[in-house]
Description:
Layout: E1 14-21, E2 31-34, E3 40-42, E4 48-52, E5 58-62, E6 69-72, E7 81-83, E8 93-96, E9 99-102, E10 110-113, H1 125-128, E11 136-139, E12 151-154, E13 167-170, E14 173-174, E15 185-191, H2 194-197, E16 208-213, E17 219-233, H3 243-254, H4 261-269, H5 281-285, E18 290-302, E19 306-318, E20 334-347, E21 352-368, E22 373-375, E23 378-380, H6 382-392, E24 401-406, E25 412-417, H7 427-432, E26 435-453, E27 461-480, E28 485-491, E29 498-504, E30 513-534, E31 538-553, H8 559-562, E32 565-578, E33 582-592, E34 602-613, E35 625-639, E36 653-655, E37 660-663, E38 668-671, E39 674-677, E40 686-699, E41 704-716, E42 719-721, E43 736-738, E44 741-757, E45 760-777, E46 798-800, E47 803-806, H9 810-814, E48 818-819, E49 829-831, E50 839-840, E51 846-848, E52 856-866, E53 869-879, E54 882-884, E55 940-942, E56 945-956, H10 959-962, E57 969-982, E58 1004-1013
Parallel strand pairs: 1-7, 13-16, 25-28, 48-50
Antiparallel strand pairs: 1-4, 2-3, 2-5, 5-6, 8-9, 10-15, 11-12, 13-14, 15-16, 17-18, 17-58, 18-19, 19-20, 20-21, 21-26, 22-23, 24-25, 26-27, 27-30, 28-29, 30-31, 31-32, 32-33, 33-34, 34-35, 35-40, 36-39, 37-38, 40-41, 41-44, 42-43, 44-45, 45-52, 46-51, 47-49, 52-53, 53-56, 54-55, 56-57, 57-58
Amino acid sequence: MMKETSNVSPTDNSVRGTIIDEKGVPLPGVSVAIKGTSTGVISDINGYYIINAKAGDILVFSFVGFKSQEITVGKKPALDIVMKEDVHELEETVIVGMGKQRKASVIGSISSVSIKELEVPQRNLTNALSGRIAGAVVVQRSGEPGQDNADFWVRGISSFGANQKPLVLVDGVERDMSDLSIEEVESISILKDASATAVYGVRAANGVVLVTTRKGVAQKPVIEVKLETGFSDLPTMPKLLDGANYALLANEALGTENYTLEYIDNLRNGTNPFLYPNVNWMDQLFRKYSTNTNAAINIRGGGERARYYISASFIEDNGNLKNNPEADYKSNISLRRYNFRSNIDLTLTKTTNLSLEIGANMTDMHQPGLGNEYVDNRWFSPVELLYYYSYLSNPLSAPVRVPIGKDAFGNTEWGWGAPSQVGEVNPAERLFGSGYNKSFRSQIMSQITLKQDLSFLLKGLDIQASFSFDANNQTIQNRRKNSSTYNITGVDDETGEFQVAEITKGNEFLGYNVTPSSNRAEELKVQLNYNQIFNEAHRVGAMAMYYQRDYVDQTAGSSIKSLPYKKQGLALRTTYAFKDRYFAEFNMGYNGSENFPKGKRFGLFPAGALGYLISNESFWPFKAVNVLKIRGSVGLVGSESLPDNMRFGYLSYFGEGLGGYYFGMAPSFHEGIGEDQIGVADLTWEKGFKKDIGIELKMFDSMVSLDLDYFHEKRSDILIQRQSVPATMGVIKQPFANMGVMVNQGIDGTLEFNHSIGDFRYKLYGNFTYTHNEIKEMDEAQKKYAYRMQTGHRYGQHFGLIALGLFQDQKEINESPEQKFGDVRPGDVKYLDYNEDGVVDEDDKCPIGYSSVPEIVYGFGAQLFWKGFDFGIFFRGQAHVTYGLGGDTFIPFNKGVGKGNLFEKALDRWTEDNPNPNAFYPRLSNGASSNNWQSSTRTIYNGRLLRLADLELGYTFKKSWIAPIGMKSLRIYCLANNVALFAPWDMWDPETASFNGSKYPLPRKVNIGIRASF
């Protein structure tokens, strides 16, 4: 028998210390014994112990619910111990809305992702989620550094109103997650059904994303270091046509010899590029490879009184644009971001804890001196504008640079070539000679939380209050200019030198313009929690919370938008479990909104859920199935967002109205007054009625695990701006209304397989999401044919004609229904008479393809481990998605022959010599043919794709090898991101959804790295 005592007298051979858990809470009653003997003690109420033991003895620490530890006594008499919980799978903690629950008790639909899976060379945390979580629809529309934020929906789109995106909470506070470093994140969870999201009420109509940052634990300080660097390239750049073929196709489209055969031969042979320019503008702007780097260090540790987590990280992501060697500044894109976080937990008393969280990031962005502006009523980023100028030009437009004379030392001086067509610009001059933009963006996040255990009043009761303050600031500094351009007007007969004329006069100095923006937010939360178990059978829980948020746009563009945005609400949750078999939960949110009048300002959003863990029944006969849970939920969520971020929808605004007028004999202008916005007194919440049924299955000791959900949501009273109010009403701005019904439904699920064979361990995993929505009612004018209306179809459905091919001859044209889109000739597109009325016109445009948001997204991969080696592979994909086509360069000679670039694909066209009915392009014409470029099945493309997203190979060194140099762990690895793309569309990356390939491609990155801990 072990001798149990906590009152051993200190001796020269005594060992003493304190035993705590990872949260720093002292553990009384821990057994401390000398291995192989009956000598032992029990820790006291403060977790303190003292035992007579000599150096070399092995102490065994054991306690119910914690993992036993064996520690060899050294020379020091003090030995503090941190014990880790021995958590059964169903006892694991799961992050839920406004709190935590045991995994067994969770009956809402919640998905999470392993942080290890997100450790990829991505600047943007949102992008790293793509294909990783069931229910998350994440698509990245651009790879341009700083412009690469992904579009993100939870279970697709459920509303055609203004609010379609999920609520993102970082440590419980409404914040942007994009610029968080993955190193500071502990977990990411997505709340998908009404039961999981109802406590957030009006904010949670489209799901909730919970990001929890890492916290300190009671342990000796552990220092973790990561260093990673590599290169990137752009694997899916659009391919432009060369000058000789461009000239041939121009002649073909014009029907005459605009470019002589001699001219074309000179282009093909590269004769005198100043007189016969043949420029691939993409090659002039982009370079093959670029570099990226990221590094991080964090320290984690603590004890009984304080726990801490401190981290700092750096990331540099360079674009693939070229630099001008003659300029003092770079023209390439460069992004640098610095992240810092300090999370500290203090145990003030045995029942009082204080947490202080401070996070910050600063992004320093350098870009060429163009973009971030509207051109032709479209917003362009810097690279998108370079694409625009490259597509506006053509390979014959101008030489990149021309000799304009000699300097004092006889060296040739160079100037930028001036394009031959009006409206064109030299794309290279715009990159290298436009100056630069710099932006500085900072985000400060802070939160202080005080938690008080109230068990002295009622066992299991605690209260916590938290206050957060966030500040976001950005300064954009534009140092822009225009460089002079020159044209060669002839050749001097005597000297043979070029005669040059200055076409545009540029600026010698950089301009200066600064645009600041800033906002700040405050949040206050008070939360009361109760958890208790009675008679080891009845587990009861409750949560009540008050919440308020105050957001101010400090550089708002109007007085109304400068007013504080205020939110206020109450949340309630009650849970009950009987013998961990039967579960019930009720959630409720009660929220107020500034957008609705008094009496309708607050809304109640309840939800309930039931669960049955049938595998915990005593009669359960299937030993191979260790977990089987069936759960279901139903509830109401809401939305308050008005279109165009407008406010106070129940108020009428008065302003200048329809304008002013000149009065008097000597006319003077007088401003008018009118109703700029019509207030709607009965405006109310947009409501979503959500239903979910799910199953959780684990078999063969959790070797196989499956989570599967079916979901259905009916959104009603959708907040819109009217579309069908006639202009004769005289309103300046269409009024708001609750009009519209939309249904969204689908399935999502996750499947995993884990197994070991000796030293070889492997994991296979995958997730799948399918969503389909349908507009049941909306504000649209009645059309002659129901199939032409958006009502009854998916949100964002493409409409157009069904193309049957290309007309081969005039006979086929004469025998086909008349097409009412202008002159039709052989080689033009033939369309289906959908309504069979004998003509092809607007009434034959019907639903084609899908929308531009994928209905199917998925990801799957494998991880293999063997004797320190590890290998990972991950694929992600999308399907049931369609994107539109059109615009300059894609439509050959859209603005006329000689204007605009062409793709290499333009060679695959219908001609009289090769009347291919399946040619990619119809016959070429001088300007866009009104018949050939109607919206149709030829002007959309299939966005389906499968991407080899990640490949990783690593090696972890044995601890015995690195312990002598003070290291705890060491891993080296090589990681490749966006490795390969498999898609039916091959002209550019379809995920960018571009209509003409004018988006920065998603870069392919190959990095090597090292991770170490001390």
